[in-house]
Amino acid sequence: MTLNLLTALFAFAFVTVITPGPNNLMLMASGANFGFRRTIPHMLGIGLGFPSMVLLVGVGVMQLFDAWPPSYTILKVLSVAYLLYLAWKIANAAPPGRTEATGRPLTFLQSAAFQWVNPKAWSMALSAITLYAASRDLAAVLWVSGVYVCVSVASTTSWTVLGQQMRRVLKSPARLRAFNWVMAILLLATLIPVLWPGTA
């Protein structure tokens, strides 16, 4: 991979991971509700889970989907159902006094598995492989995957810290409840391009 192409890949990867989407909105909500330390497994699940997904997509997972077209519909249904569930969980998160005792952020495995039903993750993975590893050469796919590991560190940290800093403003149960509902609504809004592609 040439230096120019690698630079373009870094820019593409950074822009795609830093912009709002299901992962980032959930990280911000987790940072606000649970703090930075308890959100680290969630961060690692995204930071390693998505690049692993890119790698598997690049080496041939998409061929399985192409071989059985109904799998796209199944994936869309699973994506919508799981995002609805996560939005409900965020909207009904415990207030500040109870969060540390009863609330639980996503685990590493939950977060990594979520990438496979995350509509934005699929779009990012397919675009990255198509643009920067079109030959599906293993070395090129590994470069794409590796770059996403690097940029994910900056993205997951930034969104979690943003949420953590908002804890100062969200000390009252009413404010945290309002914040969680806004995050849940924004998370649901990420489904619009999936359900109505023409509006994206």
Model description:
The protein is mainly α and 200 residues long. It contains ten helices and no strands. It has helices at residues 3-18, 22-34, 36-67, 70-91, 96-102, 108-114, 119-132, 138-166, 173-189, 192-195. Helix 1 runs parallel beside helix 8 (138-166) and helix 4 packs antiparallel against helix 9. The longest helix has 32 residues, at 36-67. It is globular. The chain starts with a helix and ends in a 5-residue tail after the last helix.
List keywords for this structure.
mainly alpha, 200 residues, globular, 80% helix
Shape: globular
β-sheet strand percentage: under 5%
Whole-number mean pLDDT = 87
Oligomer: single chain
Q: Which structural class do the helices and strands define?
A: mainly alpha
Count of DSSP-assigned helices: 10
What low-confidence regions span 5 or more consecutive residues with pLDDT below 50?
A: none
Amount of helix:
over 70%
Largest sheet: none
Q: What is the first-to-last residue Cα distance?
A: 32 Å
Quantity of strands, as a count: 0
Radius of gyration: 17 Å
H and E order: HHHHHHHHHH
Brief summary of the model shown:
This protein is an all-alpha fold. The protein contains 10 helices and no strands. Helix content is about 80%, strand content about 0%.
